[in-house]
Design brief:
The protein has about 600 residues and is of the alpha+beta class. It contains 20 helices and 22 strands. A hairpin with a 2-residue loop joins strand 14 and strand 15. The longest helix is centred in the C-terminal third of the chain and has 36 residues. It is elongated, with a radius of gyration of 33 Å.
Amino acid sequence: MKRIKFTKVQKKRLLSIASGAVLFAAGGICRLLDAQLCSDILFAAAGLAAGLMCIVRAFRGIARGVFFDENTLMTIAAVGAVCLGEYPECAAVMILYQVGELFQSVAVGRSRRAISELSKLCPDSARVLQPDGSYKETAASDVNSGDTVQIRAGERIPADCRICEGVTDIDTSPVTGESVPGGAGVGDEIYSGCINMSGTVLAEVLKRAEDSAAGRILKLTETAGDRKTRSEAFITRFAKVYTPLVALLAAAVALLVPLFIQIFGGPSFSETFPDWSRRALSMLVISCPCALVISVPLGYFCGLGSASKKGILIKGSTYVDTLARVDTAVFDKTGTLTKGTLSVDRTEVFDGGDAASILRLAAGAEQTSSHPIARAICTAAGEIPPASDISETSGVGVEATVEGIRVCVCRPMHSVEGTAVEVKADGKNVGYVYLSDTVKPSAAPALRELREQGVANTVMLTGDNESAAGKVASEVGIDTVYASLMPEEKFEKIEELCADGCVMYAGDGINDSPSLARADVGVAMGALGSGAAIEAADVVLMGGDMTALAKAKRLARSTVRTVKANIVISLAVKLAVLVLAAFDIVGMWAAVAADVGVCILCVSNSVSLLRK
């Protein structure tokens, strides 16, 4: 079990609780010995010792124009108890209130530490190769693109790099949540925040630290709290109205009820005022909205922190609410449901053409494209001829002049089996290049779990042909497939689906930016090195494992359930005790115990999300 580390303020609060408790115990002993005066003095001293911080903050709040915060209400209740001669109640109010505040502070600190641990993703320094062959220890923030850095075994990678010398294993779990290290060698990209597990490597820096994967994660985490849910906004407005309203109600109970009793022939005002004042003070104590004001935003904060530790970055609590409501999940195919590592299966040629020359022409035209098909063709061709006048049309294909021939690599004009592109030379169809992809092993289990969590409809949108799309859909269990779509057609389908339910769209985050932005929740899959993905999506899964999407949905639902439970529990308990205090069924002891108890319960409920 981890030892709790207290801050300076928490230590002061702990000292005030301890001193108040000691004086309270001494007062109780004096009361048993019939030393009434000594007992009252000790109880009053206990209330002052325990509540000094609260009293000081109350006066500071009043000086700033804040008249109805919890410190002011507790101070009024304690002073009122003293005026009524209820010294034990005064001490109990302050001691129990400080206990609740301490617990609350520790819980909030724990959740903040869970988030702040992300700052460890970025190392403080890096060893940069100098022109004379030596290495200089440099602040990681000062490392520039193009620098060469040395990364030893066990060290954290300071920026996004490409290995230029050495072989190693990379632990990506701090960023992606994936526990199995992967091998990396010359030419492989490695990302900031990950850990070099074995050999020493030299790597060329691709991006400055603040623009690298870990830097973007930190920026995203720091701004996540800016996007508040309707629940959080409601609680903020509710507290501003609720607390003054209850304070006025308590004042009415203390002053108007005794007056009405006297007017209607009952005991005099002076006789009934102490009793009704005591009831009003109990109402003031229970009226503090601490449990609501703290536990609701804390619940979302803990949910975001728990997701971050699993490599799931959610851009704000409002997207937690939306993700929990999702009933339609829409997926891109390549790179999302499949691994996205296409390879050339075969080449079909016409009119006695040569397969190698066709592949060579196609590679020349595709050499500047970042599309997975283009990368697969270039890899298969090996030697790539120079090309000029290259033009690429998204969702259609590329054209270029290769060795004096105008080459077009595009979608097939006729239906073909599987994934293929048509190759044209000077306007004549010279053959097809067929490619294949592999379905992610995690895709089918992830979709099954999403259905268990309330996703009733699963849809695939892809630019691939119906044959290839249908094969993948049957393997993973997709309900509806829309194939051969252009990017703008994907966007239109998303709009149609959004009209019928709450839609989540999961894509690679680069080519699908419009669809990611239009969906109720856009999820970028496997976006460890993609700045475009983080910009376009509302939720970013840093690893490529599809089950992380199911984890995100499950955690969102759990967070929303926790927040709603906190609201219901807090309001129900406070309303019940308010009524009981007004009818003198419970006194100030019960009121303060209920207030502190419900606060501790709700905060504990929120913090439990960190363990989920």
